[in-house]
Write a structure and sequence with these properties.
Elements lengths: L1 H17 L6 H8 L3 H14 L3 E6 L2 E6 L5 H4 L3 H16 L3 H17 L2 H17 L9 E2 L3 H13 L3 E5 L7 E11 L5 E6 L5 E5 L3 E6 L12 H5 L11 E7 L1 H8 L1 E2 L5 E4 L5 E7 L2 H9 L5 E5 L1 H20 L1
Length: 327
């Protein structure tokens, strides 16, 4: 129990050092998941151990903060924390997000460089063992890669509160030049810009792999005051592991351009056909989930193999048909 309380005190000190404005007692209680009286005792312990704590008046309450941060000894990460950082970077790289992966890898190098050599040497064997013992499961299905230049331009426009100009090309529709107020980015199976129409304020989404000529415009563009990206994302709506199969899917000419821009799987190859179609090949498991995805391609996708993928598609079609009959 004494060790648990010591860990809570250190954790609270880190919270005070990580907050520019400081923490209130209620915020301390929420961070530690304890009652207000316990939070007061933990705060008093921090004040005793860290004399550099500042008390800031913020009527009708008070805040406490530690300016200048904590020492490297007090901030040394654990092997588990470093493992999660390594895995997060690996997951982004496996998902075709090299720019975001590089940012985390750079952070990992900076954290290690700031650590004492004795701490790093002591952690290294455990970290190496954990990295070997854990990996990222690759989910069968396409993931469009994020262009580093596009991401940088969008982020720059968000920070500078400037409008964003770009050309948007939706399949089957004529490309259009758009000028929007950038509100943020959503990352998932497809990566999206969330933006507001500059006249109506209506929130719209744009897939990054369909955007080109992206650049920040002139003037000021601020998102609507009541817009919350987290709340917006929560309004939207697996990993199945089985035998590895040699997958081959033919994408019709009208969908070939989009298929080339998607990252279907790390083992993929894309073969151009004389009629303008493409054949996508890769080795993967998870035929049921892959069949679900192929639904989104409609008549543009023809399964060439394996038979188990065809069976999974037929089963899903039968189930959908029965559901419609019962509706």
């Amino acid at each position: 129990m004494r060790h648990d309380k010591a860990a809570m005190v250190i954790d609270l000190a880190r919270g005070m050092a990580a907050s520019a404005e400081g923490l209130t007692l209620n915020e301390m209680a929420a961070q530690l998941n304890v009652g207000r009286r316990t939070a007061e005792r933990m705060r008093d312990a921090v004040l005793m151990l860290f004399p550099q704590v500042e008390e800031v008046s913020d009527p009708p309450t008070k805040r406490w903060r530690i300016r200048g941060g904590l020492s490297a000894f007090e901030q040394a990460p654990t092997a588990t924390e470093m493992l999660e950082l390594t895995k997060a970077a690996a997951a982004l790289r496996a998902a075709g997000e090299p720019a975001r992966a590089a940012a985390l890898e750079s952070l990992e190098r900076k954290v290690k460089a700031a650590m004492r050599s004795t701490t790093l040497n002591r952690m290294a064997p455990d970290l190496e063992a954990l990295v070997r013992a854990e990996t990222i499961a690759v989910q069968a299905g396409p993931r469009p890669s994020a262009d580093e230049t596009v991401l940088a331009e969008i982020r720059g426009a968000v920070l500078a509160e400037r409008p964003l100009n770009f050309i948007y090309a939706r399949p089957g529709a004529e490309a259009r030049t758009r000028t929007m107020t950038p509100c943020g980015l959503m990352f998932g199976r497809a990566n999206y810009l969330v933006a507001a129409d500059r006249e109506s304020g209506r929130i719209q989404t744009f897939r990054l792999d369909r955007m080109s000529a992206v650049e920040a415009g002139e003037g000021t563009a601020r998102p609507p005051q009541d817009f919350d990206l987290g709340a917006f994302a929560s309004q939207s709506f697996g990993i199945y592991q089985d035998e590895i199969e040699e997958v081959a899917v033919r994408i019709a000419p009208e969908g070939a351009s989009e298929a080339r821009g998607w990252r279907w799987h790390p083992t993929q190859t894309i073969e151009d056909q004389v009629d303008g179609a493409v054949v996508v090949r890769f080795r993967a498991s998870g035929m049921r989930e892959l069949a679900w995805h192929l639904f989104t391609w409609g008549e543009q996708a023809t399964i060439l193999g394996p038979e188990r993928l065809k069976a999974a598609m037929a089963e899903a079609l039968d189930a959908a048909g029965r559901a419609l009959e019962g509706a």
